[in-house]
Automatic annotation (TrEMBL):
It comes from Robiginitalea marina. This is FeoB-associated Cys-rich membrane protein. Keywords: Membrane, Transmembrane, Transmembrane helix. The chain crosses the membrane at residues 6-25.
Length: 49
């Protein structure tokens, strides 16, 4: 019975870490660079790029 509890705890921790990584780390890695995008957006910081 103790082994099942350890397995469930480890699985829960892994799921929680995966959620936090996906929510906070993955979007930061997926953001494109705003330097030299060349999209013709202009010099203002309008957030259109």
């Amino acid at each position: 019975m103790e082994n099942w509890q350890h397995l469930l705890v480890y699985l829960t921790v892994a799921i929680a870490l995966g959620y936090l990584l996906r929510k906070f780390v993955w979007p930061a890695l997926a953001k494109p660079d705003r330097d030299g995008g060349g999209k013709g957006c202009g010099n203002s910081d309008c957030g259109c790029g």
